[in-house]
User: What shape does this take?
Amino acid sequence: MDRKRFQEIWEDGLHHRSFVAGGILTVLMLSLAILSLIWTPYSVFTMNIAGKLQPPGELHWLGTDHFGRDVLSMLMVGAWNSMAVSLAAIGLGALIGIPLGLTASARKGWIDEAVMRFNDFAFAFPALLTAVMLSAALGPGSFNSIVAIGIFNIPVFARLTRGSSLSLFQRDFILAARIAGKGTTRICAEHILPNITSVLIVQATIQFALGILAEAGLSYLGLGTQPPQPSWGKMLSEAQTMMFFAPNLAILPGCAIVISVLGLNLLGDGMRDILDPKMRTRE
Assistant: This one.
């Protein structure tokens, strides 16, 4: 993407309300996650039973949990854990799914059929079921969450890549590339992939939001991030028995999940409208 095109996209984005709103929410949550790597108000590994279940106040802006840990610090570190797992899973799904989709669209025939049947098989095992099987074999943990969510994302990227590439292989510029002596791999790398990058970026943004939800669900069930590492889903699980006398312990991580997913969905919708002229709407 050249500099002029990037500038046009950026100017269009600044006038797109969904893109701006989603960008603000996403940057806010990412900033808190990155900040937690170098600073938090309190250590999330230090318990203070004498100061448990304190309401929001001067010392603890969002209060403390049932172990006396600072809730704001837990949310910040939990943001990093949740987003890191989701981002790694999306990367795994894209790293395998995109080459599979390109191969299926370029080779066709039995290769295309084999890839699509593999996609159907992978879709039959949702992230939760895959995580349960991995946990039974290897034990629960963040790595298993990454693998489970990543496996579920492979067919998503494979199908999208294949569908977006099929029409491009019929275009004249691909025929010209073949006449020039370029092989299939080089054509995919130099001509097909750059033309579908915008579609893949939008899909990755949406899958990032779904990945955060999946990670929270797995942690809620005890299959994801394990204590003492904080996770939004784990915070919700621990707070469910304290809803009546400490509702903030459930409301705050729930709001964090909602804000993150809403921001990424708005950002994805905005990017779709900006990058695809056919999808643009009048603001």
